[in-house]
Design a protein that fits this description.
4 helices; Aspartate Aminotransferase, domain 1; 130 residues; alpha+beta; globular; 6-stranded antiparallel sheet
């Protein structure tokens, strides 16, 4: 997607994407929403972002792939399931011309949600102990 465009909502982001990618972007969004219903939506780093006690996951459209960003911990936890995809420390690329693994996205979002909840609980416990 054109990096010069600025978005303020995920709806705007999806609407500005090429028509042939909009349904998949919407399905990725719905998959994340279903896995983390308590998360809120926002745009962060000009990417659709889900937030719960901190950034949960981001997703984006590139020229030849859908980017999914579950943080380094999300990539590390699912490394064996990511061997078929190009990935880095904090991102995975799902090729536009191949089926998107929505089940894997769900698992990664659930993992990140649990992780953010745990971090928030630990932070709260530290505050109470001061």
């Amino acid at each position: 997607m054109d990096n010069k465009l600025e978005f303020s909502t995920i709806d705007e982001y999806i609407t500005m994407a090429p028509p042939e990618t909009q349904a998949v972007l919407q399905k990725i969004r719905e998959t994340i929403q279903a896995a983390a219903p308590e998360a809120t939506e926002k745009i962060s780093y000009q990417m659709p972002t889900f937030y719960f006690e901190g950034n949960l996951v981001h997703f984006a459209l590139a020229k030849k792939h859908y980017g999914f960003y579950p943080a380094a911990s999300g990539i590390a936890a699912f490394e064996p399931e990511l061997t078929a995809y190009k990935h880095s420390k904090g991102a995975v690329q799902f090729p536009i011309d191949k089926p998107v693994p929505y089940d894997l996205i769900t698992k990664m979002v659930v993992f990140r949600l649990a992780e953010n909840k745990q971090k928030a609980a630990e932070k709260l416990a530290k505050k109470k102990n001061k």
